[in-house]
Amino acid sequence: MTADTLAFDKSGNLTGHTGQGSHQSFDFRNSQGDCYQANVASQDGMLSSFNQGSGCPNHQDHAAWYTHPDGSPDSRLWFGSAAGPAN
User: Where are the domains of the chain?
Assistant: First the structure.
């Protein structure tokens, strides 16, 4: 979620803004029990809060080194295949 209220004068000129803020949540879990969770928020252009692992067991992130929360493959075998990028 992001918010920012812009103020304009009668001529349509920007005179300022208020309420600038944003919040983002990240959550990853898989069938192996790996868990990563983070929340970050900003207010008035500054970091206002950050927490990590709060929704995971024992309130700690745990992900094995070989997991890919971003969905990336284990290798580049896809490169150059019919489904991969063109050379």
Answer: 2-59
pLDDT tens figures, 58-74: 888 887 777 776 767 66
- 3-state per-residue secondary structure call for 10-75: CCCCEEEEEEEEEEEEEEEECCCCCEEEEEEEEECCEEEEEEECCCCHHHCCECCCCCCCCCCCCC
Query: Is residue 51 within 8 Å of residue 29, measured between CB atoms?
Result: no
C-alpha 54/C-alpha 50 separation (Å) is 11
pLDDT digits (tens, 9 = 90+) for 73-83: 666 555 555 55
The strand pairing partners of 59, in sequence order, are none
H-run or E-run covering 7:
strand 2-8
Q: What is the pLDDT of residue 75?
A: 65
Asked if residues 54 and 37 have their Cβ atoms less than 8 Å apart, the reply is yes
